[in-house]
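Human: We require from you a protein record containing the residue sequence and its fold in token form, and nothing else.

Assistant:
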Amino acid sequence: MANPFVHVELNTTDVAKAKSFYGKLFDWKMEDVPMDEGGAYTMIGVGEGTGGGLLKHPMPGAPSMWLAYVLVDDIKAATAKARSLGADVKKDVTEVMGMGWLSILQDPTGATLGLWQAKPRK
């Protein structure tokens, strides 16, 4: 499948409560990874299937929400194409902890979606 969903992220108002709830509900494995700008990002290990992560919601006052990321070959081109098709780019192409790049957009219907391009592995 071209452009599969590759990561699902919870932007939450209460990291500790979310980690406790989902860890007990699904027996997901949680691993905190320090972020460049401070704080931690929690990687969610699910075994088989698409994994994810969770973090303190970056937009104060916004409700908790899940955000799916789709794999793209060229994040700059895909973000530009989405914009040309009517998307509102909420977060332009941004490097993530030396692992790759993301952008976040809102489609013309109001749905939010993340794009992801991984750095080549050595």
